[in-house]
Design a protein that fits this description.
Elements (H helix, E strand, L loop, with lengths): L4 E7 L2 H13 L6 H21 L14 E6 L4 E6 L6 H7 L8 H6 L5 H11 L10 E9 L8 E6 L4 E7 L5 E8 L9 H12 L6 E4 L22 E3 L16 H12 L7 E7 L5 E7 L16 E5 L2 E7 L11 E6 L8 H6 L1 H21 L3 H15 L2 H4 L4 H7 L3 E2 L11 H6 L7 E6 L3 H5 L5 H6 L4 E3 L4 H6 L3 E2 L2 E5 L13 H13 L1 H11 L5 E4 L8 E4 L7 H9 L10 E4 L4 H8 L3 H18 L7 H16 L1
Parallel strand pairs: 2-8, 12-14, 16-17, 16-19, 20-22
Antiparallel strand pairs: 1-6, 2-3, 3-7, 4-5, 4-7, 5-6, 8-9, 10-11, 11-14, 12-13, 15-17, 18-19, 21-22
Helix pairs in contact: 1-5, 2-6, 21-22
The structure holds adenosine-5'-diphosphate and magnesium ion (MG).
The site of adenosine-5'-diphosphate has 16 residues, from helix 2.
Length: 640
């Protein structure tokens, strides 16, 4: 260490300090994952070197045998993980081992609860990475030299995982990174060959580079008292993992645990995946893909800048992380690997954008994912878990991916009047199978929340006739439905829009009778129109209501209430459309209104009914004070 120069002490970014603290406390029961994380990083580093060396073979410095070495020292209580990968420069070290680059980290960390079991789940989705070393170590030393840099340009980083780290220039003969963990008191168990080997096999078997450990002389029966190995013999190393890229192996040879372990490596996630799909395709378009559906949404699922996409390999050589060209945006939660034989090894992001093979791969992989989800949907419980995390993202699909619209529609789940709960569990196939004889449309209502949807007056006639209505309450719903026209030959109909038409569910007789009652109220409609003119475009009789006196409906092509609100909240201009006021001819209040001789009271009552209809639709009164004043006036007259 005598060669160290330019030593400085730097503070960790605040987020790192918080993460370190939380991680050490909440992941304690799973502390062994540090090894998986460090091996994962070593493997990434080896892959990056191999990629850069495609164009600059000098980077190998005469040694292209990429591997990872693990050693330990029982007496010194250290574990060392070493790779001959790409290494880091001084700037790299300061950035990667002193900050967290992910945007949104601060707000993520502040969302943690302090409850250990919950937080360990959340931190897992965040990705624990290098800093997990501090779960078992109270001092970590990193010696690293970027491939291609002179021996004297190496860096020594050291920290006790508290507030700060030191960084100094040093010398390192071999390129790459050596990480020395000084185990905490009580964590000596990790300085043990048997323990480490087991962990490598358990978590890192799938790593495509050999993970080497010193050969241990296995004491055989007659060699029990064998002497300790000679002091100066150079240790012999052997690979303890299978060191083949997992996706290149044949499906039938891969155990579920191996798929799960590999998922954690590619996704930086800490929980098991919900499902996966592994495919090898030969022919014109040759590729292997291994795609995973995570169990939990990442904290930055809704962050537009958040990195997403697959790990791209070309002929088994790692090319890039987060290649987002291979799946549409609405499948951005999928993790995994695509290994193509059709792309050239020197692809860049720019070239990818133009290569026609990319489009072909994208549509092939999209189908794979949709098929995988379709399979997953057969397991109701698992699919419910999936839907809860990713349903809203999938709802972007029908509009984004017209070609696969029908497949996506089958994957959607809704709350409905049939189940009566807010849980989104009804598929369109379920709905169609329950349609009434003569029913031609798929009915739905969009509202801000489940209760407003469920108690919407527009549902009254449907309840009476036993017709199911889908209850839509997600922010994206109004927009999504505006992009949909039909499913299985049946068109979608918003029950708050247009004239009610139940098709043949209603008999000719019923329809005739409705026309009769409507005729009786023509004079009422004529009286109402001028009174409510400022706020409604039309007044008409309806038979969609059984219990409520009146409701508001929109024209078929008007923007829905929910979308209006969202756009208004976003400060956007929305078209100025007035709703239609519909009255229930059977309701005593409407009949009373018809009989009301006093014009002033007539107007008051009409306004109250209009405001109530607005409220029932989840609207906000423009002038709540006027509403209350009118209502109170009528109440006083009642008691007078
Ligand atoms: P992640 O692997 O998700 O990026 P980590 O916390 O595990 O996060 O690592 C942070 C970064 O530190 C890596 O992205 C990489 O740039 C750098 N790094 C960590 N370990 C190594 C290594 N062995 N060799 C080269 N770079 C490394
Ligand atoms: Mg990592």
């Amino acid at each position: 260490m005598s060669t160290e120069t330019q030593k400085e002490t730097l503070g960790f970014q605040t987020e790192v300090k918080q993460l370190l603290h939380l991680m050490v406390h909440s992941l304690y029961s799973n502390k062994e994952i540090f090894l998986r994380e460090l091996i994962s990083n070593a493997s990434d580093a080896a892959e990056k070197l191999r990629f850069e060396a495609l164009e600059k073979s000098d980077l190998y410095e005469g040694d292209s045998d990429l591997n990872i070495r693990i050693s330990f020292d029982k007496d010194a209580k250290t574990v060392t993980i070493e790779d001959n990968g790409i290494g880091m420069s001084r700037e790299d070290v300061i950035e990667h081992l002193g900050t967290i680059a992910k945007s949104g980290t601060a707000s993520f960390l502040s969302s943690l609860t302090g409850d250990q079991s919950k937080d360990s789940q959340l931190i897992g989705q965040f990705g624990v990475g290098f800093y997990s070393s501090f779960i078992v170590a109270d001092q970590v030393d990193v010696f690293t030299r970027r491939a291609g840099e002179p021996i004297s340009e190496a860096v020594h980083w050291s920290s006790r995982g508290e507030g700060e780290f030191t960084i100094a220039s040093t010398e390192k003969a071999g390129r790459g990174t050596r990480i020395v963990l000084h185990l905490k008191e009580g964590e000596e168990e990790f300085a043990d060959g048997w323990r480490l080997r087991n962990l490598v096999r358990k978590y890192s078997d799938h790593i495509a580079f050999p993970v080497m450990m010193e050969k241990e002389a296995m004491p055989s029966a007659d060699e029990e008292e064998a002497e300790a190995p000679e002091q100066n013999a150079t240790p012999e190393y052997e690979a303890v993992n299978s060191a083949t890229a997992l996706w290149t192996r044949s499906k039938s040879d891969i155990k579920d645990e191996e798929y799960q372990a590999f998922y954690k490596h590619v996704s930086h996630d800490y929980s098991d995946p919900l499902s996966w799909s592994h495919n090898k395709v030969e022919g014109n378009l040759e590729y292997t893909s291994l795609l995973y559906v995570p169990e939990k949404a990442p904290f930055d699922l809704w962050n537009r800048e958040a990195p997403r996409g697959l790990k791209l390999y070309v002929q088994r050589v790692f090319i890039m992380d987060q290649a987002d060209q291979f799946l549409p945006l609405y499948l951005r939660f999928i993790k995994g690997v695509v290994d193509s034989n059709n792309l050239s090894l020197n692809v860049s992001r720019e070239i990818l954008q133009k290569d026609p093979n990319v489009d072909k791969l994208r549509s092939a992989l999209t189908k794979r994912v949709l098929d995988m989800l379709n399979k997953l949907a057969k397991d109701t419980e698992k699919y419910a878990a999936f839907w809860k995390e990713f349903g809203q993202v999938l709802k972007e699909g029908p509009a984004e991916d017209y070609a696969n619209k029908d497949k996506i529609l089958k994957l959607l789940r809704f709350a409905s009047t049939h189940t009566g709960t807010s849980e989104q569990s009804v598929s369109l196939d379920d709905y169609v199978s329950r349609m009434q004889e003569g029913q031609e449309k798929i009915f739905y209502v969009v509202a801000e929340n489940f209760n407003t949807a469920k108690s919407s007056p527009h549902l009254e006639i449907f309840r009476k006739k036993g017709i199911e209505v889908l209850l839509l309450t997600d922010r994206i719903d109004d927009w999504m439905m505006s992009q949909l026209f039909d499913f299985d030959g049946k068109s979608f109909q918003d029950v708050t829009k247009g004239e009610l038409n139940l098709g043949e569910v209603e008999s000719e007789e019923e329809k005739k009778q409705q026309e009769e009652t409507a005729k009786h109220l023509e004079s009422l409609l004529e009286r109402l129109k001028p009174v409510l003119e400022a706020r409604v475009s039309e007044v008409r009789v309806t038979h969609r209501l059984t219990d409520s006196p009146a409701c508001l409906v929109l024209n078929d092509y008007d923007m829905g209430m929910q979308m209006r609100k969202i756009m208004e909240a976003a400060g956007q201009k929305v078209p100025d459309t007035k709703p239609i006021f519909e009255v229930n001819p059977e309701h005593p209040l409407i009949q009373k209104l018809d009989q009301e001789p006093d014009e002033a009271r007539f107007a008051d009552l009409a306004y109250i009914l209009l405001d109530q209809a607005d409220l029932a639709a989840g609207g906000q009164l423009e002038d709540p004070a006027a509403y209350t004043a009118r209502l109170n006036k009528l109440l006083l007259e009642l008691s007078a």
